[in-house]
Specification:
This protein is α+β, with helices and mostly antiparallel strands. It contains twelve helices and 14 strands. The strands form two sheets. The chain has an eight-stranded mixed β-sheet, covered by helices on one side. A six-stranded antiparallel β-sheet has the order 11-2-3-12-13-14, covered by helices on one side. The protein starts with 8 loop residues before the first strand and ends with a strand.
């Protein structure tokens, strides 16, 4: 496994989308091919054949070309910079949509926002397959749009981040029965939101006009507002903060998409995690960032807000909290801990400023 001291950070910059891609690809030339190979292995384990993966990438291209053709130029730049074909780059960026073509029960991320000292803050655990632990990194992006910084995976434009305008974005996968690779990939949409939007309001408007064909939730916050936006083939639904907080796991909270949810993928785990978060918040709101992190701590016998890999299982079933993330949109900062909330007080946090 990658050690915390070795965790990669890259600075991505360029005056055009292609130059941005070249910058990212060149920085990841040594690791992107291995990252794709490990994802391709996961796709096959989940029942997604090479042919189905190839068809999926072609459908993604068809969806992006009329909406944001510059994204295809950025992908081409990544491929050239990394010395790989275009298809693997698109597959990595559309990994959520390609995985949805298969199916397997999973454990995933937990997110919440809070108001502390007059400021909105966000915290999240990022839970993912332990085998993919070597293939994530932090990045700072300076391009034609707004600067942003955060955490992502090799070759993928964005995941969790904050931008220079003071908009923070957290990311949770959801599952709908109509999910498919016929719209903008969710990780790509994260990049578009962070590079183009100055507020939660602008981000919601952009998401509503985007071609959505798969499911995720972006929990977003700025100085004035925090929301969790549920996106799915059934539509876009905004969950507003209540009592100064938004809480998010991996099931739909709005009734319309919930009616066609892939409940077998994330349940009953997701509802149990959300109930535990809300139970803890009912005992008292966090008064410091460290207390927000502690809300996501869980131990033996509790719902896995802190996810520990069961190494007796095989690839595709070994889930772990790979990172813990704190965002402060007012300060334009994102703090990233390489590890679980259990490491929060003794581990080294990496702080990035957008």
């Amino acid at each position: 496994m990658t050690t915390r001291a070795e965790r990669l950070h890259i600075d991505v910059s360029g005056a055009t989308p292609r130059e941005l891609g070249l910058s990212r690809g060149a920085a990841l030339r040594a690791t992107l091919p291995a990252a794709y190979a490990k994802y391709a292995e996961l796709f096959r384990l989940l029942g997604v054949s090479e042919e189905l993966e190839r068809e999926g990438t072609e459908r993604i291209i068809a969806a992006l070309r009329p909406w944001r053709p510059a994204l295809l130029e950025e992908f081409a730049g990544i491929a050239e910079g990394a010395g790989v074909d275009l298809a693997p780059v698109i597959a990595l960026n559309a990994r959520t949509e390609i995985i949805a073509l298969g199916g397997m029960a999973s454990s995933e991320c937990s997110t919440l926002t809070a108001q502390i000292g007059g400021h909105r803050l966000g915290v999240q655990t990022w839970d993912w397959h332990i085998e993919l632990e070597p293939f994530w990194h932090t990045h700072s992006v300076i391009g034609p749009g707004l600067r942003y910084a955060g955490l992502t995976e090799q070759g993928i434009l964005s995941k969790i981040g904050v931008n220079e305008a003071g908009l923070a974005l957290h990311f949770n996968i959801l599952g709908h029965r109509e999910d498919g690779p016929d719209g903008v990939p969710m990780h790509v949409l994260s990049s578009v939101v962070l590079s183009e939007c100055r507020s939660v309001e602008e981000a919601i408007a952009l998401i509503r006009e985007a071609p959505i064909a798969s499911s995720s939730a972006f929990t977003m916050l700025d100085a004035q507002r925090a929301v969790s936006v549920e996106m799915s083939p059934a539509g876009v639904f905004v969950i507003e903060e209540q009592g100064g907080s938004v809480q998010r796991t991996n099931h739909f909270q709005h009734g319309t998409p919930l009616a066609e949810q892939k409940s077998e993928v994330f349940e009953p785990d997701s509802s149990a995690r959300l109930a535990l978060v809300r139970e803890r918040l009912a005992e008292g709101s966090p008064t410091a960032p460290a207390e927000m992190v502690r809300v996501l701590l869980s131990g033996e016998g509790e719902p896995p807000l802190t996810c520990r890999a069961d190494m007796s299982k095989s690839y595709g079933e070994r889930w772990a909290t790979l990172a813990t993330v704190l965002t402060d949109p007012d300060a334009r900062t994102i703090r990233i801990l390489d590890g679980m909330p259990t490491d929060a007080e003794t581990g080294a946090w990496r702080t990035l400023v957008a």
